[in-house]
Amino acid sequence: MPGAPQATLFDLVGRREGVAAIVDTFYDRVAADPEIRPVYPEDLAPGRAKLKLFFEQWLGGPPAYSEKYGHPRLRRRHFPFVIDEKHAGRWLHHMRHALRAHNVPVEAERAIFERLAPLAHHMVNAHEDVPREPLGEAVLE
Ligand code: HEM
């Protein structure tokens, strides 16, 4: 319909509630995966909450993450965690399962993965000499 507002990916995944459900399923799977679990800190709650805020904004919803933490600078924020290609593969596998578990339409899943797959591989830093000091709740510009 001309002039009708286009649905964002944020709308298509079920907005805030949908994002929360997807990220919960994703984190539950990470928690149970011996390949990727050791990369994460002992307490998974802060990361779970941050990924919810980030996903809302990354999918076209309100800028919930940046309001709290500044620029995402995702690669920089992942430096304290040693991530290899296998971890990127597991991460994507769990995210795909989470989208399917919450009945995200197949077209939306495709659009999300087109952007998510390169982003996940961009996080790989295992064989690089990068600063590993924890960033925690840092607000980055
Ligand atoms: C490639 C595999 C990945 C691994 C192994 C990984 C692992 C991690 C770990 C260990 C944390 C820290 C959690 C904490 O501080 O409690 C984290 C944070 C985060 N990750 Fe990832 N991640 C990956 C890919 C991604 C991708 C593709 C995205 C975005 C779509 C993403 C978004 C985030 C966000 C927003 C945070 C919170 C950053 C902050 O504010 O500290 N991650 N991730």
- Judged by helices, strands and strand pairing, the structural class is mainly alpha
- Note the beta-strand portion: under 5%
Bound molecules: protoporphyrin IX containing FE
The main β sheet shows up as: none
Please provide the ordered H/E string of secondary-structure elements. HHHHHHH
Average pLDDT works out at 96
Oligomer: single chain
| Cα gyration radius (Å) | 15 Å
Distance between the termini: 39 Å
Instruction: Flag low-confidence runs.
Output: none
Helix proportion: 55-70%
Number of DSSP-assigned strands: 0
Shape: globular
Number of helices: 7
Describe what this molecule looks like in 3D.
The chain has 141 residues and is mainly α. It contains 7 helices and no strands. The chain has helices spanning 9-12, 15-31, 45-58, 64-69, 74-77, 85-101, 106-122. Helix 6 packs antiparallel against helix 7 (106-122). The longest helix is centred in the N-terminal third of the chain and has 17 residues, at 15-31. The N and C termini lie far apart (39 Å). The protein binds protoporphyrin IX containing FE (HEM).
